[in-house]
């Protein structure tokens, strides 16, 4: 009986490991960004959109970066955020419209990152983003609710980056893999 129990536990562990391996292999085929080469980098740069362009992502949404500002501070007299020493705030306004026939949940809506010319991705500063939304009176983003078909909303995001790096390089906004050159 003890021998059977040991084999049963071992079999269970092997079964779990096999399921994990199959899941990893099955999901690995969808990553179109794997394997970087200079040709793919040049190809991506040629496909970069401009501020004001409208384009489709994931066949579910039309997006457009409508405004880009470099700022030292965002917010109003009551709630504001200043850039850290040596930093600058890059404020982005962008729109998203659901063009599918189903609501887009909070985790299905397009995501946005600031990307430098080396490919380093930067996440938005939540505090600065909230203050910028108050300052600009843009409050129609869908953070915790679905974006229904045919509805268009304006979102804001603020990124804090090194002032020197931002001044020198080429910068993009990346929305679900599509790039918009902002500088």
Count all strands and give the number.
11
Helix content: 25-40%
- Low-confidence segments: 24-45
What is the strand arrangement across the widest sheet? Answer: 1-11-10-7-8
- Sheet with the most strands? 5 strands, mixed
What is the 3D form? Answer: globular
Secondary-structure content class: alpha+beta
Summarize the structure.
This protein is of the alpha+beta class.
Description:
The protein has 183 residues and is of the alpha+beta class. Helices cover 29% and strands 34% of the residues. It has 4 helices and 11 strands; from the N terminus they run ααββββββββαβαββ. It has helices at 2-28, 38-46, 126-136, 163-168, and strands spanning 49-50, 54-57, 61-71, 73-75, 80-82, 87-98, 112-116, 121-122, 152-162, 171-175, 178-181. The protein has a 5-stranded mixed β-sheet, with no helix packed on it. The radius of gyration is 22 Å and the shape is globular.
